[in-house]
Amino acid sequence: MTNPVHHLLHPDAFDAAGLAVTNPADGSIVATVRRYDVAALTAIVESADAARHAWAARTAKERSDVLRAWFNAMVENAEALALLMTLESGKPLEESRGEVRYGAGYIEWFSEEARRAYGEVIPSFAPGKRVLTLRQPVGTCAAITPWNFPLAMITRKVAPALAAGCSIVVKPAEATPLSALALEALAHRAGVPRDLFRVAPAVRSSEAGDLFCSHPLVRKISFTGSTEVGKVIMAKAAAQVKRLSLELGGNAPFVVFDDADIARAVDGAMASRFRNAGQTCVCANRFLVQDGVHDAFVAALTARVDALRVADGQAVPGAMGSLIDGKAVTRVAGLVEAAVGEGAREVSHGHDGPARGAFHRPVVLAGVTPAMAIAHEEIFGPVAPVIRFTDEADALRIANDTPFGLAAYVYTADVARQWRMMEGLEYGMVGVNDGLISSEVAPFGGVKESGFGREGSSHGLADYMSIKYCLVGGL
Description:
Layout: H1 4-8, E1 14-22, E2 29-33, H2 38-57, H3 60-76, H4 78-89, H5 93-113, E3 120-122, E4 130-137, E5 140-144, H6 152-164, E6 167-171, H7 177-190, E7 197-199, H8 205-214, E8 218-224, H9 227-237, E9 243-247, E10 252-256, H10 262-274, E11 284-290, H11 291-306, H12 326-341, E12 345-346, E13 363-368, E14 383-389, H13 392-400, E15 404-405, E16 407-411, H14 415-424, E17 429-432, E18 447-448, E19 451-452, H15 457-462, E20 465-472
Parallel strand pairs: 5-6, 5-8, 6-7, 8-9, 10-11, 10-16, 11-14, 13-14, 16-17
Antiparallel strand pairs: 1-2, 3-4, 4-20, 9-19, 12-13, 15-18
Helix pairs in contact: 3-5, 3-6, 3-7, 4-5, 4-7, 5-6, 10-11
């Protein structure tokens, strides 16, 4: 295949003295890209604001057609995009292909939703008056995206912004800017005006965040990342009362009841916990397993984990790839060591993977209790801590004992219990008898300290639009 870096990116994206992007599987330099200081980023924001008016004035169909062309460009370049993502993030190539399909789905969805930004005609409160609402674009938007889903996190934010008639500037993660830059180039080739959607890698996220929070032309910020940083953005954006969408940390419980289909539950556990080596915000972070099936579940999960291959994401089909960098490996290893020190038992014998690169073996920990630190930390690595529980009330108490509320999972054959758990779990998303919940047709987002706002579905478009009430009198 042609080098995906040079095949997909704008020629002016590169700078030999810029930001070096490293392959975490082997430490090699994939590319060195241009980085933007505050002055350059300010100019980009101002150009984006100037470009949005003509874009918003286009018909919904015209905006829809351009987004559809962007979707088609992604599909045509799917394999190159997948390889590029694997090179910069370390995730297995099969997972990268899946993310390309998933990310493209958001562009396709919002290309269709662009035509459905309906207002309302409301029954009037008085003779001779008519009451109606219009839905209009928020304005110029800014997005800060993480490294774990470097392509889908862009399309989930940019596609609805463009569909609504907004402009948007994206600051991607320092570790994975290449997918974002490739999407930008494909969007421009598809007809998205250059100044309307810009990707600006920067050395310091804090500087970009400060600019987005303080610049008066930025009307909305969408951030995916840690709760700590989200709180800082929220506080700084309050000075100008900016619109916010925040998708922050998680601590997802994966609850398995005695009546669950254990084979199905283990399949879901593997998909949820070990996808992207456990580096997803919605992956199962705590496994809560009822007494009657606890030992059988642990044994079955451990057998699957011990069979996992750990390797370079390009090299071995079906393998688990690397973590994002050496710091992540050290952090995960420290969490495992601390849990064992508190009394947990490492019951798996997972492979360590190549000596070179940011790899960590997959781990199953038994004997974990809710009091242990690992039960409250977002692990972001291939570790499955298992907590035993007695009954439904016990499961709900343990599951909800966290300040986070992004995703939760429940396995049970009892339909009444399914409804009770769906309603009782304090989370923005609940998967019942399934470990993969994300889709462009559904609203993605959390509650409590996991943030607010929704991405995907019609709600994702609404987050980039304002409602204007209009009264027409004298009729």
